[in-house]
Amino acid sequence: MAAVYKSLSKTSKKESTTNGVPVKKNKQRVLILSSRGITYRHRHLLNDLYALLPHSRKDAKLDTKTKLYQLNELADLYNCNNVLFFEARKGKDLYIWMSKAPNGPTVKCHLQNLHTTSELHFPGNCLRGSRPILSFDATFTTAPHLILIKELLSHIFGVPKGARKTKPFIDHVMGFTIADSKIWIRCFEIRETAVAKAQAQAQPTEDDDSEKKANKQLQKPGPEKAAGDNTKISLVEIGPRFILTPIVILEGSFGGPVIYENKEFVSPNQVRSELRLSKAGRYNQRSEQRIERQAKKGDLGLRTGEEKPPGELEDRVLFA
Length: 320
Description:
two-stranded antiparallel ribbon, eleven-stranded mixed β-sheet
């Protein structure tokens, strides 16, 4: 097998030029790692992405959350030009850093609505090491920051031809859609099912001779008819599925000036604090109502252990 691989690699090197112009090879390698404090669901997502990206390299957890520039040195050490870093905070929130090492840019996103491959028991499946088809929404071409995010996603999730541990098959699709200023990511298997012969050959009978002739011409085997015409292509979800909310885009790799900032993004800490304040407001309202109710009972003498003050028309007041 090694001799066959060497012979094929030599021929591929000879065919790497078209009309005397060398073809530029797509050399992308991704470093995937996380910070301390990730949950088991975050770890399962990291493993799912590592299985879907054969050109990726997984490393141990990073001990620091402030000195992220050290990731550039790790990427250089492992010969990677893309970094996918999972940053966990408070054991609840997950942020994803996508960077083009060593010069940038860097995109920071907040991950929400996470569903791993084994969590929902998706029926789809794909070959390990196969290459995906990247499907981007047309909205990615409407704004400059979306064009930059699209290019960065294509470098990270696009498996180059002939990369490490890849197989020469394309059997799944990764879809990137923008809705509500968020990036929805899904993964589907391209499933081909054979159609029954009776169903393929069954055609409606009509009296028109011209339509009958057209049907006969379609049934004749010709050079343009493909062998897989009797197959039905469908998409079956594989997983994982998650949503990314872009927060900031930095000019450098894990540093540099901010070139884009999402003004509509609300931090999950702020959302939780507002929920706590709303609960505290309801508690304060109930406590004030309780105090008012006790004061009213005291005025009427309805409290336990307290006597009602005598009225002006009582006998003990009139005949005192």
